[in-house]
Every structure is written in structure tokens, then in C-alpha cells.
Amino acid sequence: MVPSGTRPALALSAVLAALGGRYGFHRDELYFVEAGRHPAFGYPDQPPLVPLLAAGWHEVVGGSLVGFRLLPAVVAGLVVLVAAATARALGGTPRDAGATAVVVALCSAVTAIGHLFSTTVFDLLATSTLLLVLVRTVHPDGGRPQDPPGGSGGPRADLRRWLLVGLVAGVALQVKTLPVLVLLGCAAGLLVAGPRAVLRRPGPWLAALVAALLAAPNLLWQNANGWPQADLSAAIAAGSSGTSVGRWLVVPLQAELTGPVLAVPLVAGVVALLRAPALRPYRWLGVGYLVLLALVVAAGGKPYYTLGMLPVLVAAGIPSVLRWADAAPGRWRTVATALAVHVVVSAVLTLPVLPVRALAAAHVTAVNYDAGETVGWPRLVATVSDVVAALPADERAGAVVLTENYGEAGALSRARRAGAALPPVHSGHNGYWRWGPPDEGAAPVVAVGFTDDGALAGLLTGCRTVARVDNGVGLDNDEQGVPVRVCSGPARPWAQVWQAAERLG
Q1: Beta-strand (E) ranges in 31-182?
Q2: Using CA atoms, how far apart are residues 54 and 68, in angstroms rounded to an integer?
């Protein structure tokens, strides 16, 4: 017998794998590959696991974009399987589990992040798995009253289950720090809605200890380096990211995670967890989601920071949606029509199905910012390469490249490793700043992407614009039209300039 959710999981992975080579690398992917080549216990913008995995997998597949994207495609399929298992853990039928798998596979955020090698897709798998294990641990008897305390298997089995929670949480915290907020929300949910007795047992504290021990290397790195991730969070809240939004938009944009049609089971899941008698034992999950949402709003985070709870919310909402559809003739026809519209619109907006030259006319990037960040990197590399090649031979030998952001630096670093005739690449953006300045005396400097003349003047002198980047498809993304300058050298010794070059965002 095929487990519930297997077919939707395989279908999603197959579609994502088939489209993996479209357009090009994303700026974050380029950065992660380079970050992983500088192994550390932490980075200014994230824990170490995904960059290390990106660099290693990039080597395994020989730099192939199709091969590189295969891993996140598989991870997205695993998320669908976890969603189906979560539906069963909440007491759902095989039909409920299958429908949950289909809905999660079709959610706009899942298809969008499953297309990219990003922290988000790995975080979604880790956090949804953590919630599945947590549900099974808090309710080892399927939500029925527990006798003896600890449920099936007694205290020893209870400790083993909590040990697993701690191990999964520890791995999740090596992907992203967001699971901390999810766990805080769940703990608040248990305190408010129960079962409170769970928190009086040693198991949760064992889990917390194990998770803390696994997360300790990154926490110690952050502490030793002045907690740059906290500074980055403040920068994101201030709007420094291309996907930052105002706090007032975080709640309404929860529907963007699913798409408007599939927001129905999402909202139904929140309502069911808070009100449905059958889900009374799991009310802590509904309260936990509301607490998590409040924390994201208060912190000025992004709407997708709640994404890890999407599978459990959909799993809770699916039974009521199915009952509604079954209750009257013709409703399934309405559901099928709405789903068909959703699939078409979501595919166009979240996946690279359009010709790249059609992106601008279709205004895809107005909804999906990340689509634009996969376009134009080869043209940027070619433009910078031409500028370097035009330098006199005696200047070219000591030249360096300084970029405004890590996407530019990542694209040029990857090209240089592949044999492009480029000088050493540096940037003050996020992790790149910690990999050090150019050697003293390095000059001239090819400056890429600096759009603030005042900021550039504080770093470099004698700058003249010699080219501008053109992605060739008329798409107004972050790199379109940015200047490429040749500068005579640093405004002060590189060691001093570097202190002013750091930029978190």
C-alpha cells in the first residue's frame, strides 16, 4: 500500500526538478555556495548548515544548476510527506492525509521555495518535522487521556520521544533560528490551552537541553562576533531586504503563503484548532500559531516566518473543508475550478514557466521578487570581465573587485573559480565582510553595483563609470543598470576602509 501523500510528493519533486535549470542561480544560492567554502560555526545572517550543504552539493553536481536544484526539489517532496503524516497524527483519515498532501504541494510558498536552494525550504522541512514529532510526543495516544503519565510505553518511552524532539530541534536550529519562535509559541500554547502537565515532566527540559547543546556552536560564534544576526534582524525590520514588508502587512500576507484559494484550509485549520471539539487536545497548536504570528509582527519579520506551521494548520483544516465539499451537489465542481485557476496562476508567479523575456511584461516580479533575482548574472559577469580585460596589463595584475552586495560577489566568485579572468572578489556585505579586505596595495579597484556615490566616496577614490549592467531582457531587477566603475584605489589603507565597508542586510 502506498503511504498517503506519496503521489503528490513525487509529483511536486518531479515538477521542481524538471524546472530546476530555468533562468539561473538566485543571488542567495550564489552567496551560500561561497559561504560554505569558508566553513564556520555561524555566519552573520544564518547558522552554518545550509551554506555548508550548498557548497558541498555544488561540488558533487559539478556546478550544474539542474543538479544543484535537485536537492531542494526532493526536500519539498519530503515536506508533503510530513504534512500527510501530520494529518494522521491529528486523527485524520487516509483521505484527510491525502488531501492535506495535495494542498501543501500546491501552496504557492512551497512551490516557490522548493525551486531554490535556500534556507527556507530546509527550514520548512525541519520545522514541520519538529511539529510532527512534538504532536506525537505530547499526544502519544492520539489525543486521548494518558494513563499512565507519559502515554504509551510509560516514562522511559516518554523520555525517548522528548529526546527525539530535542534532536530534531537542534538540527532545525542549525538551519535557521526561526524554530526558536515556533517553540516559544508552542510552549505558550501549552501553558494557555494545555495539557499543562506536559511541562511539569522532565522530557521537555531534556529536549531543551539537547537542542541547546546542538545549537551551542552557532550561539557561541554569534556571541564571539557581537551577535550580527540580531543586527541583521533589525536591518530587515527596517526594510533592508528586498522581501521586507511593513508590520501591518504580515497578517494579511499569510494568505500569500498558500495563494488565495488555498488560504481557505489554512484559515479553517486555525479556526478548528481553536474551536473544534474534536481537536480540543491540540488547541495549543492554534494558540501557538497566534503567538508566533504576534512575535513576527512585533519583531518586524517577514510573512513567511510562520511558514513552518503551514502543514499542521492545513492538516487541521482539511477535514472541515472536505465535509463542506461533500455536503451539497456541485461543490466539488467549484473546488476543482478554483484549484485549476490556482494552479495556473501560482505556476506562472512562483515557477520559471514563462520565457525569461516575458517576465517583465507579465509583472511577475511585482509579486515574486525572487524570480527577478535569478536573471542576469551571466551578463553581469561578462560586463565586469570586459572591464577587467580593458585595464592596462600592468594595472590588471594588481586589480581587485569590490561589490556592493553578496549576489554580485557570489556570481563573480563562482565565475572566477570556473576559470574566468577575474581578479580577487571582495564585498562588505554580510558574510563576505568577514572574509577580509584586499591585500594592502591592491589597486585599481573595479567597483560593482554601488549606487550611493557618497558611500562609495568614503571607500574608494578616483572612480569613473565605465559600464552599466544590462540583463538583456529588460527586467528591472536589483542589478539592472547598476554601474561598474574603475577606481584608482582605497580612500585610506584597506584595513581602515574595511571597517567602514561592512553592511548587514
Answers
A1: none
A2: 8
The long-range contacts involving 371-374, CB below 8 angstroms and separated by at least 24 positions, are 371/23, 372/475, 372/476, 372/477, 372/478, 373/26, 373/27, 373/28, 373/242, 373/407, 373/477, 373/478, 374/23, 374/24, 374/25, 374/26, 374/116
Amino acid at position 388, single letter: V
Exposure string of 115-124, with b = 16+ CB inside 10 Å and e = fewer, is bbbbbbbbbb
Nearest alpha-carbon partner for 171 in 136, 231, 218: 218
| CA atoms of 194 and 216, how far apart (whole Å) | 30
The β-bridge relationship of strands 483-487 and 460-461 is unpaired
Dihedral over Cα of 423, 429, 430, 434: its sign: positive
Helix (H) or strand (E) holding 467: strand 464-468
Residue carrying the nine cell digits 514588508: 245
List helix spans (H) across 327-458.
Answer: 331-350, 359-362, 369-372, 377-389, 393-396, 406-417, 431-434, 453-457
Residues 6+ apart with CB under 8 A from 367: 349
Distance (Å, whole) CA 200 – CA 249: 37
Q: Which residues of 171-196 are buried (b: 16+ CB within 10 A; e: fewer)?
A: bbbbbbbbbebbbebbbbbbeebbbe
Q: Phi/psi zone of residue 330: left (φ > 0), alpha (ψ -120 to 50 degrees), beta?
A: left
Buried b (16+ CB within 10 A) or exposed e, 460-478: beebeeebebebebebebb
Contact between 503 and 433 (Cβ < 8 Å): yes
Evaluated on CA atoms 42, 46, 47, 52, the torsion sign reads negative
Which triple of cell numbers denotes residue 330?
456541485
- Is the full-model pTM beyond 0.90? yes
> Do the beta carbons of residue 83 and residue 314 sit within 8 Å?
yes
Q: What is the pLDDT of residues 401-415, one digit of tens each?
A: 999 999 999 999 999
Q: Are strands 400-403 and 425-427 parallel, antiparallel or unpaired?
A: parallel
Q: What is the pLDDT of residues 297-319, one digit of tens each?
A: 998 989 999 999 999 999 999 99
At 295, the amino acid letter reads L
DSSP strand pairing (445-448 vs 483-487): antiparallel
Asked if residue 121 lies in contact with residue 113, where contact means CB atoms within 8 angstroms, the answer is yes
